[in-house]
Amino acid sequence: MRFKSTWRRFWSEPGFAVAAIIVAALLIFFILLPLSAVLLRSFGVGGDGFTLEYYEQFFQHSSYFQALLNSVGVGVVTTTIVIFISVPFALYVTRTTNTLSKVYRGLSLLPLVAPPFIFSLSLIILFGRRGLVTNYLNDMLGVEFSIYGFWGVVVAQVLGFFPVAYMMIESTLRSMNPSLENASRDLGASQTRTLFKVSLPLASTSILKASLIVFVMALADFSNPLIIGGETSFLASDAYLLVTGQQNMEMAAVLGVFLIVPSLIVFLFQTYFIKDTDTTSISGSAGTQNATLNKGLQGITFGISTLMTFFIVVMFIMVVLGAFVQIIGVDNTFTLDHFSDQSGWSFIYTSVIVSFFAALLAAGLGLLQGYLTVRKNIPAKKFLEFVALFGLAVPGTVMGIGYVLIFNGPPFFLTGTVLLLVLNMAFRKIGVGLESGISKLQQIDTSMEEASADLGAKPTRTIRKIVMPLLSPAFMSGFVYTFMTAMVSVSSVIFLISPGTNLASVYILNLANQAALGRASAMSVIMIAIVLVCMAILKWLERRSNSGI
Amino acid sequence: MTQQDSIISLTHVSKAFGDVRAVQDISIDVKKGELVTFIGPSGCGKTTLLRTIAGFYSPTAGEIYLEGTRINDFPPEKRATGMVFQNYALFPHMTIFENVAYGLDVRKETKETKKERVNDALAQVQLEGYENRKPSELSGGQQQRVAIARCLVLKPKVLLLDEPLSNLDANLRMMMRDEIRRLKEELDLTIIFVTHDQEEALSISDRLMVLNEGNLQQLDKPEVIYQRPVNEFVANFVGHANLLSGQVKQDNNNSYFVSRDIQFTVENMNNGNGLVLIRPEMIHIHQEGEVEGVVINKVYHGNSVRYEVRVGDTVLLADDYNVFGKNLYSKGQTIYLDIPKQLHLISA
């Protein structure tokens, strides 16, 4: 009875019903199907038939099992270090009035605009086999030193993933209602006590969330282990080598499953078990500012923040220098040779085109799904939301393997086509458009649409004149975010490229692996420039739409 | 009155959401030029009823007529009703002019007509010269006026106002209340007004419909609602009330009202059991009289003093309005209450 009436309501607006069915079909086809393929293939299904042989091999073959241990290991170590830096850094930025804090904030976000393996690149420039520091240590002190391996990966990840955690923690600390800290002080607690009894506990949810996200990112990291992991094996990079080197899809799928499981657990955990502590919307006006830290705490947080910012800046300078000199450390004469890489430029062109269409698709479909989710009664909408967001959480490597399994052979033969690259990037990021659409629509009161109908507008007109203009900021931010991340993403598309359709980020990774550091640096600089321009456009659009509304 | 002379006519309208019955069996005819208020505590169904009239919900049972036409299944855009939302729902990306012109655009009016009618509507709400501003540049009261103008410009058969004054501060609320009355008189508007503020409802309405838990309690003129409520709920919800349970008794030539602690003379009241309604301002306090009590609390309001007076185990509220320059009674003081002889009895 209830089911029937749900269906009748669903079909009462046929346009939306058809849209919902299309969105659902696409999500299932381009997210769920590839993931299922990975899971099934790990049991041999789709290959030689059902078997547990590959799991047996995984646990017997020490190098595979070791890869799991190593990946979990870097995950734990990287996360711990990142959190112990992010919290004081965020405190320094939000709880001091020092102008330097704003500079630090800007610089700390630099890694977001760079390819994910930029720090591996600069670490090799500094500490690689012929690195600047390595040579110096060798010549002066006779110390042999190698950055390759577990700790190299950790350092590269700490630098690269720090801004993700930092941004989440900072925004919580910033938006916290100052009256809470003021009340604690007023009740006689010292500042340090207030920090540990009020501020940090209130931020604990976001610190936990940040830790989980960094942990999964580090665990599933693909490019840093590939460049700087040396002889040490890690899950994602090993899975890639299994696919490309040995065509051992089954074993790659097993490694993929070990990548999915932690990301699924973390995703479920943070979607369903972590309740946000609401620290902002406590009633009463929040006219005041949070008090600044006392001298001692300021000193500690300043020290940590300075050290971190210094490392980030040095790393970036290394890449820029590497791009503009012949061979850094060997022949330091200025040159633009590294920028005259014909194939490099053509790959950048491909990257821009692919990322543009992927972003268009992801933001558009994401918003459409968001609208259907928030405003319409679509059967199974919670499930579809789950699929889209899980697509965002699944490690790229797994998605890449899944796409190879589904689209490599008949009836699709899509591997190597630009279309498949677009689809892969788009559906991995559709959750971004969905989330920004949902949050924007929740801010827009339904009464807007009702007022439009009340004034005589048909649903199509309401969508066109009211919903779409009001959602355009969400579309733009979803579009630019997807474009930026698609430009620098590697882990998934690396499985899907062909010599004709190479992408810039993958090309840079290969250059770095071949120790062509000059050209890799130059390409990275170009990528960073493009992404920075995008961010500037986003900021400009944001400001324009804010002044309009 | 029949359906034909009324603008809006509801007959036995019910609305349920799943198993929750939000509104049950409501019938009302709203005449041309009348302002009817739906009033009740939150969750009483008043907004649901208004949204059912606007077309955002379709009734589960019953009929809705607009000038004699059954509109049960008409979507909002096909109904000639104009709704002003509680949060105004002005389109933030459009100017004031574009907001007010929105409904005219739908009707594909010419540029000239559009301009003329938007200007007229803005003039009616005294907002000339604001055409090119954005909603965010206007104060709350001004946004409210735009929301009204946006409806007026379409000449709706009935204007539906959903708690329109609740987001305004006290002074502005009074002003807008008068403004809505003025617009109603000038333009002969038919208005349905939803509020939970009984003072607002009493002062603005031609008729009030009091709702509780989805059921109609009483539908009448403000003075009838205030003076002759049909039940305990209405008596308590609209205004402050002393309700004494007891009976009217005949003794020789006199009648008395007898309750547990209090007994006093009444006139022209039929014998019977029930609740007698005594509004605090109806009681006069004297140095001597029929009913003796002790002041247990007093609250000074400026134009009046509210005393809580204990008589036996019953506490009565009494407002003394004639206090200028007088000494106030103090806590613990014994006083005498003068209760009017003609009272409204809510039959048990």
TrEMBL record, chain A:
Broad class of the protein's primary localization: membrane
Localization per Swiss-Prot or TrEMBL: Cell membrane; Membrane
Keyword Transmembrane helix: yes
Keywords: Membrane, Transmembrane, Transmembrane helix, Transport
Membrane topology note: Multi-pass membrane protein
Pfam short name (any one): BPD_transp_1
The ABC transmembrane type-1 domain, residue ranges: 68-270, 348-538
Tree of life domain: Bacteria
Gene Ontology biological-process annotations: transmembrane transport
Transmembrane segments: 16-40, 72-94, 106-128, 148-169, 200-220, 251-274, 302-328, 348-374, 386-406, 412-430, 474-497, 517-541
GO cellular component terms, semicolon-separated: plasma membrane
Matches recorded under PANTHER family: POLYGALACTURONAN_RHAMNOGALACTURONAN TRANSPORT SYSTEM PERMEASE PROTEIN YTEP, PROTEIN LPLB
Family stated for the protein in its record: Belongs to the binding-protein-dependent transport system permease family.
The name this protein goes by in its record: Iron(III) transport system permease protein
TrEMBL record, chain B:
Annotated transmembrane regions: none
EC identifiers of the protein: 7.6.2.9
InterPro entries, A to Z: AAA+_ATPase, ABC_SmlMolc_Importer, ABC_transporter-like_ATP-bd, ABC_transporter-like_CS, Mo/tungstate-bd_C_term_dom, P-loop_NTPase, Transp-assoc_OB_typ2
Pfam family, one: ABC_tran
Keyword list, A-Z: ATP-binding, Nucleotide-binding, Transport
Matches recorded under PROSITE patterns: ABC_TRANSPORTER_1 (PS00211), ABC_TRANSPORTER_2 (PS50893)
Gene3D superfamilies: 2.40.50.100, P-loop containing nucleotide triphosphate hydrolases
SMART domains according to UniProt: AAA
GO cellular component terms attached to this protein's record: ATP-binding cassette (ABC) transporter complex
Keyword field contains Nucleotide-binding: yes
First-tier enzyme category under EC: translocase
Domain ABC transporter: 8-238
Source organism superkingdom: Bacteria
Catalytic activity: a quaternary ammonium(out) + ATP + H2O = a quaternary ammonium(in) + ADP + phosphate + H(+)
Keyword DNA damage: no
GO MF annotation, one: ATP binding
Subunit-level organization: The complex is composed of two ATP-binding proteins (OpuCA), two transmembrane proteins (OpuCB and OpuCD) and a solute-binding protein (OpuCC).
Name by which UniProt lists this protein: Carnitine transport ATP-binding protein OpuCA
Species the sequence originates in: Natribacillus halophilus
